[in-house]
Amino acid sequence: MLEAVSSCEVEFPDSILIACSGGPDSTALLIAMVKAFPESRYIAGYFNHKIRDQDETAREAHFVSDIASKLGIEFATGDASNLIETEEQARIARYKWLAEVCVENAISACVTGHHSNDQAETAFFNLIRGSGAKGFSAMNPGAHWPIDIGGRANHLRIMRPLLTIWQQDIHQYLNSYGIKALVDSTNEDTGLIRNRLRLDVIPTLKEINPGIEQHLVSLASDVRSDDQYLYDLAKEWLGTQSDVIERESTPDQQIVRIPRTRKAPIKTLAKPLFARILRIIADELGLKLSRTQIDTAYSIRVRSGGTVSLTGGNISTDAKSFIVSAVKS
């Protein structure tokens, strides 16, 4: 554990928020981070989604507070302010609160206890819901904040130093300290998709191939490397074409025009590279793209008069240009 945290490829800041639910993963992370970097400032953050029995969540909050006290670090707790009915709503509420704690305490990074089993589960979950390469590549050790919160929180980072650690190693680490972490009662609810994958689907797949989780993690890593390479090529292409790509801001719109001529050979780009270029431009303009929209945009790049409607924007082509526009909010 300590070696995984110490050798993680991300560089930890001097002040860190550690998201801790009281479960084995985040509890082990909390201990390992303090042991590995004792000079840093830490806040252990517990968030109550207010969707479970309050006695259970009170026990969790007390458990995390007690661990934090024994480690000599700060503790923060917060509650959901709105009714939560879905996993996604819970995720958004949690990350919103974690961001608030970071901003209030001048902290630039939050560390979470995601591990290798979570990585395999995330890759498989994104695969079955139809994600592309970016989704299947699962989680990075260091990443931008997972929800859009804007303003002062744009600089925040999520760090996941346990992605190379398997759950069995986490339990062994806690056992070495004689610590029995708590278990969220909803972890056994197979009505939740991720729980069903973890409890039913992946165990069934392991009967066919016992190494399925390791293979998912390895493949996700390969896809992530390939995807990053293509994004680097896309950024390089945009850099070489910067003198001919036009950017315009009107009172109502932001517009990016790429010539459909020899000056900027967008018509000859391979689809994997085109898709990354388009995603970079869309991110710049604050637009979201689906795979279908990217496919349609790729097909119209070679002809005039094409159009793709986006939420808050548009992709179109005329005789001279491939155009991406976004409505100003």
Molecular structure report:
Strand 10 (313-317) and strand 11 form a beta hairpin. This protein has 329 residues and is α/β, with parallel strands linked by helices. The protein starts with a helix and ends with a strand. The mean pLDDT is 93. The strands form 2 sheets. The chain has a 6-stranded mixed beta sheet, with helices on both faces. The chain has a 5-stranded antiparallel beta sheet with strand order 7-8-11-10-9, with helices on one face. It contains 11 helices and 11 strands.
The overall pLDDT, averaged over residues, is 93
Q: In percent terms, what proportion of residues is strand?
A: 15-25%
Rg (C-alpha, Å): 23 Å
The biggest beta sheet reads: 6 strands, mixed
**What spatial order of strands do you see in the largest sheet?**
3-2-1-4-6-5
Low-confidence stretches: none
Q: Determine the structural class based on helices, strands and strand pairing.
A: alpha/beta
Topology as a string of helices (H) and strands (E): HEHEHEHEHHEEHHHEEHHEEE
Query: What is the count of β-strands?
Result: 11
CATH architecture label of the largest domain = 3-Layer(aba) Sandwich
The assembly state of the depicted protein chains is single chain
